[in-house]
Amino acid sequence: MIEVKGLTKKYGKFLANDDISLHLGAGELGVLLGPNGAGKSTLIKSICGLLRFKGEITIGGYNNRSLEAKRILGYVPEIAVPYPMLTVYEHMEFIARAYKLDGWEERTEALLTRFDMADKRNKLGKELSKGMKQKVSLCCAMLPQPKAIILDEPLSGLDPHGIRELQQAISDIKSEGTSLLVSTHMIDTVESNWDVTFIMKKSKLVRECRRLEQTETLEDIYFSLFEAGELDE
After folding, report:
1. What is the pTM of this model?
2. How far from the centroid of its chain's Cα atoms is residue 147's Cα?
3. How confident is the prediction along the chain (233 residues), in pLDDT tens digits per residue?
């Protein structure tokens, strides 16, 4: 579903992503791990078509910058920035109109209820807490029912209930055949259902692990690299 080949991204002379290639299949949950500054957010933004880069990225076989790819890809950024003068419900309506969705109202109600935002529908973006902003971003990404969703530190700012609901949402989305790529520092939140993990260090992809090929937990795999010195700064 998501295919990255030879991705290289520089900011001036700084090399943020160095010849990265990876594949995430349909219905797979991919986890992106690495220390701060490893290049994870740059990789995610490149996949979403937000940055210029060298290499090739496809979503469902379509070039990631094409309209076809954008229609089937959802994105939840690390820092949610809703429109300050739109209400929660108006954000959902904006997405529905942008994607020309039919019957979006019922799905909107279900999403707002799932994330305890139904009673916040008339709150303006500028009135929302950090956690509420993150929930609105999640709802907007899930509304078009994309075939792939990328989440950059999605648990940031969520309360324990929100974290639990997001974990369940990720499980439900995966069971529907949607691919997910999740960048997170909270390894335990994806431990139960990950399929492939991509570990980055200093702009490079240093390890790809398939769950079916592993006997260790995801946390053990990650920290064993630190103990071996492979992820030392």
Report:
1. 0.86
2. 12
3. 999 999 999 999 999 999 999 999 999 999 999 888 899 999 999 999 999 999 999 999 999 999 999 999 999 998 889 999 999 999 999 999 999 999 999 999 999 998 889 999 999 999 998 888 988 998 999 999 999 999 998 877 677 877 887 788 788 888 888 999 999 888 877 888 899 999 998 999 999 998 888 778 888 888 877 665 555 54
The CA distance from 2 to 63, in Å, is 10
With vertex at residue 55, the alpha carbon angle to CA 179 and CA 19, rounded to the nearest 5 degrees, is 90
Dihedral sign of CA atoms 204, 207, 211, 217 in order? negative
68 within 8 A of 56, measured Cβ to Cβ: no
Provide Rg for the chain, Cα atoms.
18
DSSP secondary structure letters along 111-142: HHHHTT-GGGTT-BGGG--HHHHHHHHHHHHH
Domain map of the chain by residue range?
2-227
Q: In CATH, what is the architecture of 2-227?
A: 3-Layer(aba) Sandwich (3.40)
* 197 DSSP β-pair partners: 31, 209
Burial code (b: 16+ CB inside 10 Å, e: under 16) for 7-18 equals bebeeeeebbbb
